[in-house]
Amino acid sequence: MKLQWIAWRLILEIRRDRRTLAMFFLVPLVVMTLIYYALQGDEKASLGLVTRGVARLWDYPISAVLAESEDLELVELSLPDEEADPVKIEAFIKDALAKGEVQGVLLMDARLLEERFGGERGDLHLYLEGSRPTATAAILSGVASAMDDLAEQLPIVVDNTCSAQCAESINNKALNLNKHYLYGDEDYRSIDYFLPAFPPLLVFFFTFIITIITFQRERARGTLARLIIAPFSFFQVILGYGLGFFAFFTLQSAIVLGYVLLLLRIPLTGWQITQLGFLTLLLMLVAMVMGLFCSFLAKNEFQAIQFIPLVILPQIFLSDMIWRVETFPVFFRLLAFSFPLTYANRAARGLVLKGEALWINWPDLLALVGFLGLFLLGMLLFVRSRQAV
């Protein structure tokens, strides 16, 4: 009988709390819906095809074979047809890769047939962006299949004195594929792609959780109210708590960042590590202010905990950590860019994988600073509205 009374009391308390009911029944559906629709677009690797000279005769057949691959998307490049300078062609290809127009470019130049006629294997050149192992693997697989088909179609020059047995054996060698990586190399591991996103994710995750729960506990105990009644302004109180949190979260960030750097096989300079540390601290401040803001919206610790899956889970799946934002439908692409973790992940990968200076990704840094100011302003307006009431 006592057990039934306790259970019934809990059921009635939860039923009166609309936020708790939403957390039980609505939030899981919202999160699953976001993930489902965001992943409706199949992630395909973008590949460009450049042919020059006589090799253009095989432009259509090779394109048809590449288009059959479910993992590849052929992209037309705006390289002028009359451009024949190898240096300019290579510069154009690398520029297209760096800008993200394509993730790979297959180059078939005019010397291909000359090499085949000369008894050589013949060279194809594959330029790879290289920072996404899954895209690189898809491109390599698709190009390998296309190479086999192309080798069968290339003409064979046979001398009149050559016997039938000789003709069957003349230059049926497989084509040679020369791979050129813009970032990374053949030893680049899949884990190396995900590791740069670990410090932002872990720091954001733990900073948000600890901040929202600790600050809500201070409110429940009445400590915050007593501080505000005392001769302290609201911003002095918030700044004091922020400094206290900052000391512990900075140490936490250093530990996480140091451990990830030990796991990375990509060599980093001291300046790159410093920039990565700065990015991690900036995201930590954003997470801390978000935690403080959400703690003001919660009436108790249980409601504060409810914000955790609502804030964290969508960012894990939609922040370009696992799947490319470019593959999302338009609505979810816009939603992804409303998350601070999206900008932090892009900046971290650009810094670690591409060797880009942090200032090159200044729009991402500016977005993080914007989030910081936005939540500070929201917190101020919320507290003033409560005081007015």
UniProtKB/TrEMBL annotation:
Subcellular location: Cell membrane
Transmembrane annotation, as ranges: 21-39, 193-215, 222-239, 276-298, 304-323, 365-383
UniProt domain ABC transmembrane type-2: residue ranges: 151-386
Database matches in Pfam families: ABC2_membrane_3
Annotated GO MF terms: ABC-type transporter activity
Keywords: Cell membrane, Membrane, Transmembrane, Transmembrane helix, Transport
Claim: Protein biosynthesis is one of the keywords in the record: no
Record's bilayer topology term: Multi-pass membrane protein
Keyword Transmembrane helix on entry: yes
PROSITE patterns: ABC_TM2
Principal place of residence: membrane
InterPro entries: ABC-2_transporter_component (IPR051449), ABC2_TM (IPR013525), ABC2_TM_bact-type (IPR047817)
GO cellular component: plasma membrane
Family: Belongs to the ABC-2 integral membrane protein family.
Name recorded for this polypeptide: ABC transmembrane type-2 domain-containing protein
Organism per entry: Candidatus Lambdaproteobacteria bacterium RIFOXYD2_FULL_50_16
